[in-house]
Structures are given as structure tokens and as C-alpha cells.
Amino acid sequence: MLCTTLWSTILASSACFTIASATGLHVDRSRRLVGVDALCGTAIDPSTIAAFRGNARNQPSTSSILARRADNSSVPLPIDVYMQILSADGTEEGGNISDETIGKQFTVLNEAFLHVGFQFRVVDIIRTINERWYHNLTPGSSIEEEVTVLRKGGNATLNVYTMGALNTSTQAWGSVPSELQYHSQYDGVTINGTAFLGGSDPVYGLGRSMIHEVGHWFGLYHTFAYGCEKSYDYVDDTPIENQPIALGGCDVGRDSCPDQPGLDLVHNYMSYSSDECRDSFTPGQVQRMREQMAKWRGIVYPGIVVGDIPDDV
Ligand SMILES: *[C@@H]1O[C@H](CO)[C@@H](O)[C@H](O)[C@H]1NC(C)=O
Ligand SMILES: *[C@@H]1O[C@H](CO)[C@@H](O)[C@H](O)[C@H]1NC(C)=O
Ligand SMILES: *[C@@H]1O[C@H](CO)[C@@H](O)[C@H](O)[C@H]1NC(C)=O
Ligand SMILES: *[C@@H]1O[C@H](CO)[C@@H](O)[C@H](O)[C@H]1NC(C)=O
Ligand SMILES: *[C@@H]1O[C@H](CO)[C@@H](O)[C@H](O)[C@H]1NC(C)=O
Ligand SMILES: [Zn+2]
């Protein structure tokens, strides 16, 4: 059962965004909790988010975005994927996932990313039996550190880990590309098997959690923010959306920031709506994904000029 309190991320701890003089792991951990998706997490302190992301925004205008989107190439760029299945004991109940289910999950993912211009190919499925890892893999934990030994490939390679962590509300998380500069070993996305395609979660079993997390891996943030004052996702065409965020569901017509233009994008993949409700990225998100992939992962979509990509400020 899903709980009924507010959703959020586990960004709650203000320490998450303390970027002090500390070097290495501390800063790394603090910065990397951006794309953490939890059920029933605690509330976020907006000032810590603002401090982290910076207050000044310098978004390109829509026309400059369109001007840069010059190429209409329909050839998708390939992304190599290592599918890392953790399990307690190799059984499906213990977290193992069949090749067939993995194939179906990637069909769903590839359909969502075709118009973005990328396609995923699973180069290997690596199944690891480790009960301790399977039941305790949470972001920022020592187990996560241990699991980094599994990672394959480089900045352009996607590692997808599945687990079944207990005693945590964190269901999935994904790193954003700019994190590569701090801690590339954590690059990738991690999803509880309950939210994998075919998983037992009553509203997240259609495979869209993977799309959402890979959206983070391509550089997207959530469509919702932390207040109605401003946007935090570096995308122009996603209306500002406040918390509280409806739990799952498909609250069409919701307008959580009535003084700001636009309704909440309840159908967006980067929302927390239920899987059956989530079906789209905006053009601005598509553009940002192409830019972030070019800038950080070296996969350059035709027409993207790395030197023209605005910094996130
Ligand atoms: C892309 O498509 C648009 C609209 O159809 C067209 O105006 C433009 O010339 C095309 N660009 C290229 C590079 O083919
Ligand atoms: C996990 O599932 C795969 C595919 O069904 C199967 O080949 C494998 O033997 C199972 N167990 C382990 C430990 O990989
Ligand atoms: C994660 O998976 C475990 C094992 O299937 C399950 O008990 C737990 O409820 C899941 N957690 C979330 C937040 O989905
Ligand atoms: C989860 O919490 C329960 C109850 O406190 C405890 O018995 C169990 O060992 C914990 N499991 C893990 C994997 O930490
Ligand atoms: C991966 O990205 C980081 C951050 O941009 C960069 O420092 C590093 O050199 C890149 N690695 C490779 C092999 O290009
Ligand atoms: Zn997320």
C-alpha cells in the first residue's frame, strides 16, 4: 500500500545541500541526492534547494531554443546499457528479473525516448546475488558505495540497478549528468523491483519509473518545485508547480500555483503521477536532454553545439 502523506524526495535533510569546504565524499553525497524519488518522504526546505541551485536564472528564450534545434535527424543515437539485477537469492521473489521482462521494460523506455533521439541497447545483463546489497541499497549508504564495483563503462554508458531495499521509502533514484564531475562511480539509475515494469507497486508497475529516472540521467529535474515563486528545472515550458504533489493519481486540471501561468503537467514523465497517467516530455525537456547529453556524456545530437549550451545558474 502506498501511504497517504506528502511525497517528496529525501532531500529533506538540510545537510544534503551544505556545500561547504568539505571535499570528496561529503560534497559528493550532498550533491547527488537531487534525483531521489521516494514515497512518503519528508518535506523539503526550499531555501536549501535554492541555495543549491542558485537563485539567478538565465534561461534561453524559446526562440533561441528553436533556433538551435535546427536538425530534423530521425536517426536515434545509441546508448549502451548494463542491466544490473541484484537479488537476494536468484529467485524472482528474491528480486531476479527475467530477460523477457527486461526486454519489455526497454521497449517501453525506447518508445518514450525515440522522439528525443536516443535508443537504448542492453549490452549485458549482470545478475548479482547478494542479499545484503539487495535489501539495503539506498542512496548515500555504505552499501551504495560497495555496489559501485559493479559499474561498467564510462560517462556515456547507462547502468541500471534493480534492488528491493527494505525499511526505506526511497523507491528509485537517478544521477544527473553534471554529477559526473564529482563522483562518476555513482552514475546510473536504481529502481526498486516493485517499480520495474511488471512490478507489484499498484501504480508504478507499467515501467514509467525507468523513464523518469533515465530522464534524470539525461539531465532533467522534476516538474514540481518547492513553492510557487520560481521554477527549478531549467526548462521554460514546464509551468511552475508547487508541492504538495498528489500521490500517484492523475489529477488532470490541477493548478497548484494559480498565480503562475499554466496548469500542472500531470502527464509529464518527470512528475509523480501514476504510471498510467505519465506519457510525455515537453519540447523544452527534449532540448535540455539533448544538450545535457552532449555537454556531459559526449553524445551529441545533430544540431547541438556544446559551446552554446547555457550553464545551469
Ligand atoms: C527541419 O524541419 C523544419 C520544419 O519542417 C524546416 O523548416 C527546417 O528547414 C528543417 N531543418 C533541416 C535542417 O532540415
Ligand atoms: C535469474 O533469471 C534468469 C532469467 O530467467 C535465469 O537465467 C537465472 O538463472 C536466474 N538466476 C540467477 C542467479 O541469475
Ligand atoms: C522495495 O522492494 C522490497 C522487496 O520487494 C519491498 O518490500 C519494498 O516495499 C519496496 N520498497 C518500495 C519503496 O517500493
Ligand atoms: C527492517 O526493519 C525491521 C524492523 O525493525 C527489522 O527486523 C529488519 O531486520 C530490517 N531489515 C533490514 C534489511 O534492515
Ligand atoms: C566524464 O565526465 C567528467 C565530468 O565532465 C570528466 O571530468 C571526465 O573526464 C569524463 N570521463 C571521460 C572518460 O571522458
Ligand atoms: Zn525523480
Automatic annotation (TrEMBL):
GO biological process: proteolysis
KW Protease (keyword) present: yes
Keywords, in A-Z order: Disulfide bond, Hydrolase, Metal-binding, Metalloprotease, Protease, Signal, Zinc
UniProt-listed InterPro entries: MetalloPept_cat_dom_sf, Peptidase_M43
Domain of life the protein comes from: Eukaryota
A molecular function GO annotation: metallopeptidase activity
Signal peptide start and end residues: 1-22
Domain Peptidase M43 pregnancy-associated plasma-A: 159-293
Family as reported in the entry's similarity comment: Belongs to the peptidase M43B family.
Protein name: Metalloprotease
Organism: Pleomassaria siparia CBS 279.74
Lineage, broadest ranks: Eukaryota, Fungi, Dikarya, Ascomycota, Pezizomycotina
